Amino acid sequence: MSELLSFKGVNAGYGAAHVLHDMNLSVRQGEKVALIGRNGVGKTTVVNTLLGLASLRSGDIRLGQRQPRRLRPYMAANNGIMVVPQGRRIVPNLTVEENLMLGAAVGRAGPWRLDSLYRLFPILRERAHTPGTAMSGGQQQMLAIGRAMMANPELIVLDEPTEGLAPVIVDQLAEILNQLAEQGTSLLLIEQNLSLVGRVAERYYALSKGSVVAEGKVRQDHIMELQQHVVV
């Protein structure tokens, strides 16, 4: 399987703050990978480094077959990687459908269009002409995922997707992510909720103080062993 995303020996941060230390991570075609860790260990900095919002000081980041010399926010999307950001970032004053069309603006060909997306997310069809920010937190998360899917990516990176969601919505989210994976989309799930990790991911990396301290297969009978990496 080809690698869709890889970090090799990555050191990154903001100004004088050195956050990621010699970090290695990879996601291959068809994989469902989790990056777990407590608050403040650098998980979101992984996303910001990928998007060029944090400073890459050394190491290599590959987006598919490309290794850009300097990362910019648009490069991930252009190379088939879409990010569902923490907090969802639904654009105010745009309807649900208008928010979805922002993802389509990337211009990648593929199976996801409004009609196919609405079959997966009937609530988005029902609320198509409602302001995106007027929906519930769970519905906004579905909208953020739908917006990413409209770019027809090979890989979706989700940063803390269960934040603020009720358990019943987390259950729905797990079903949706597994459906996406079954249809060929790879996933990088950046998450503390081990219930979701256990139901979706096949491999994990555990991050502590900006370094990967453990990695391996996600096994249902050992999922509670991962608690040490996410509980203070």
TrEMBL record:
It comes from the Bacteria. The keyword Repeat does not apply. Keywords: Amino-acid transport, ATP-binding, Nucleotide-binding, Transport. Residues 5-232 form the ABC transporter domain. The keyword ATP-binding applies. GO terms for molecular function: ATP binding. Belongs to the ABC transporter superfamily. This is ABC transporter ATP-binding protein. It comes from Zobellella iuensis.
